[in-house]
């Protein structure tokens, strides 16, 4: 009689938007919630790995009982209640904001880990409001000087894909586009936060599993880890994934976990 397969703990890092959470407002499909609970019951480690600010990640994670986090695109980690968040590269932000000013591109920044963006003109607010993208409180300060800001945690610019393609200065910036009307300047290497948690916990590469759907997940799809792209993922991510599962709203996470035998 064949013996029972020995349990080996895996360490899962899930992107949030478009991976474990879908729709507007965001919710977790029943199949995904079932899979996450089963993974925890089996003794596996569960964490999110998101571009969201910590302050926008914690309420979501609290709602679904997820205590471990990689936030801020890899610049934030939460483990055993310890929160550590680094700001963006200050010179990078100064340089790109100078370009935005020169080209009259509306921009905003988060100066703390809070749901508030600061901008110099009402134009930024008006554009975001028109496109129903105002998901933060807005502070308009005509005297806002990027050089006098100590820490910047996120940047935003109202620029369409055509303008983006022609803006050479963006090649020196880490950013992601989630909507047609604007880009988010944020860290884009979630593997940095994952590596930090691995070092703290002594996790081996073979035990790390990452799930994602967008371009800001590319850098965490490392060859030494098991990487799973959602069926609704961008093609760039699917091409480098170890496995492409079903769509997030079609039981994709549960399907992948059953495929690899992580849950019954």
Automatic annotation (TrEMBL):
Entries under SUPFAM superfamilies matching the protein: HAD-like (SSF56784)
GO cellular component, one term: cytosol
GO MF term (any one): phosphatase activity
The keyword Hydrolase appears for this protein: yes
Superkingdom field: Bacteria
Keyword Hydrolase (UniProt): yes
Keyword annotations of the record: Hydrolase
Protein name: Cof-like hydrolase
Organism for this UniProt entry: Peptostreptococcus stomatis DSM 17678
